[in-house]
Specification:
Layout: E1 3-5, H1 15-27, E2 30-34, E3 40-44, E4 50-54, H2 63-70, H3 72-81, E5 89-93, H4 95-104, H5 106-111, H6 115-125, E6 129-133, E7 143-145, H7 148-158, E8 164-169, E9 174-181, E10 184-192, E11 195-197, H8 204-213, H9 229-237, E12 251-253, E13 265-268, H10 275-287, E14 292-299, E15 309-315, H11 321-326, H12 331-347
Antiparallel strand pairs: 1-2, 2-3, 3-4, 5-8, 6-7, 6-8, 9-10, 9-14, 10-13, 11-12, 14-15
Length: about 350
């Protein structure tokens, strides 16, 4: 697979590469990406120094800081160590992972939590809890769990394909992604979970089918499926079924997470945030060693300095495509983010 020079007018160029190509062309520097997916490559400054890029990850964060953000357990420990508010959690290891570790370090292996301890851990955290792959992204594998039998079933299944699963305390609040670059807030995005709004005449099944058709990916697929067990569970827990007709204007939330990659909606709230909320996001990025980060925070009201808030996790390469697609009014924010990232890299050349 070759790296090819990329210009903004190249056909089928995804959003992030296109914006970077526009900025690089403006500055007279080279952007080269893989010729098949335009997913990874490099920016070459006038001095000849190269800055590798991969998806939304840029050559600003150290390798160790990126790994800390990817590892939810490690990231949570850094946040706790700094005294920042974050949900309590425990890590569950698969039997396979423990067997492998036992060979090299049997003492450590014996101290790790397994599926056997998961019930007591969830009980101590208090139901409901969330389970999620420790190194997962985009909400994949995240489940809201209400009782022990459900916990055991989902963890048993998840640990077949994941060596480590996080059991995390459930906290309330509206879901925000904060884009931080070198201590400056560039954007704050409120992410609203996938939901349906009733019209008093069509059943949930029809509303859901119509909604899913609007949630297409760049490759032409769909972000979620109507048979997604999380959606069916949410409908059931609300006391409904697929044949239920919601009242006109009635809101039914279908997913517990608000990831844009799973059909969530994005709203620009950058100008509404209090200084206290901004300070929390900046400090979270700092204690995790990240120059550039997407900081995920749950907060009751970001406009109030003392509103309850919890830092969920950090992302060292936050994707912004869904935010761009949500509204033309967001485009200036995204351009400013990529301009800031590029200029920060070039300053170190």
């Amino acid at each position: 697979m070759q790296f090819i020079p990329v210009s903004p007018d190249l056909p089928n160029l995804p959003l992030a590469p296109r914006l970077l190509a526009e900025l690089c062309q403006e500055k007279g520097i080279k952007l080269a990406l893989d010729s098949e997916f335009f997913y990874f490559g490099y920016i070459e400054a006038g001095s000849g120094m190269r800055f590798p890029i991969k998806g939304g990850a840029f050559a600003l964060n150290s390798y160790a800081a990126g790994e800390a953000a990817r590892d939810k357990d490690f990231c949570g420990r850094l946040l706790q160590d700094a005294g920042l508010p974050t949900p309590d959690f425990k890590l569950i290891h698969s039997d396979k992972a423990i067997r492998q570790l036992s060979t090299a370090n049997p003492h450590v292996a014996k101290s790790l939590n397994t599926l056997t301890e998961a019930g007591d851990i969830a009980q101590s955290l208090g139901y409901p809890v969330f389970i999620k792959p420790n190194e997962g992204t985009q909400g994949v594998g995240v489940q809201k769990i209400s009782e022990e039998a459900e916990l055991n079933a989902h963890l048993t299944n998840a640990l077949r394909s994941n060596d480590r699963m996080l059991v995390q305390e459930a906290v309330s609040g509206r879901d925000y992604r904060v884009i931080v670059l070198d201590g400056t807030i560039l954007a704050i995005i409120e992410r609203r979970p996938l939901s349906l709004i009733g019209n008093g005449s069509h059943p949930i099944a029809e509303l859901l089918a119509k909604k899913i058709k609007t949630l297409t990916t760049r490759s032409g697929g769909y972000k979620v499926e109507s048979e997604d067990p999380r959606i069916l569970k949410a409908i059931q827990e609300a006391g409904y079924n697929l044949a239920t007709v919601l009242h006109n204007g009635e809101l039914l939330q279908l997913l517990s997470n608000a990831n844009l990659s799973t059909g969530g909606e994005a709203v620009d709230v950058t100008d509404l945030a209090s200084q206290g909320f901004k300070d929390l996001a900046v400090e979270a990025a700092r204690v995790c060693g990240l120059r550039y980060a997407g900081v995920d925070i749950l907060c009751d009201d970001l406009s109030k300095d003392n509103a309850p808030a919890n830092v969920l996790e950090l992302n060292a390469g936050p994707g912004l495509t869904n935010f761009w697609q949500a509204s033309p009014n967001h485009h200036h924010r995204i351009r400013a983010v990529y301009r800031g990232v590029l200029e920060a890299m070039l300053e170190s050349a």
